[in-house]
Amino acid sequence: QVQLVESGGDLVQPGGSLRLSCVVSGSIFSLYRMGWYRQSPGKQRELVADITGDGSTNYADSVKGRFTISRDNAKNTVYLQMNNLKSEDTAVYYCQIRKPSSTYWGQGTQVTVSS
Description:
mainly beta
């Protein structure tokens, strides 16, 4: 049984920073690609960043240079460091693990960027 628990979402002013965390249980964490997605009202869920087991990363153009994804395999945790936040970053952020047979999602954590 796979479970993903996200934390770190908050209300923050434009230009501020947040660090999201996702702890994964019930899986061999180090073998699989991990991703962060986000969804805002009226929009499709979109990929923000992902990271492979060997550390290769990929970012959406809208967050390049501002966000950093990382993983700590010993702690079964993936992080998303978000700097210089903008109002358009407001969304529910979801953690994802992709296995060969299925994909699992966390419950989401709300990030609101507003003055």
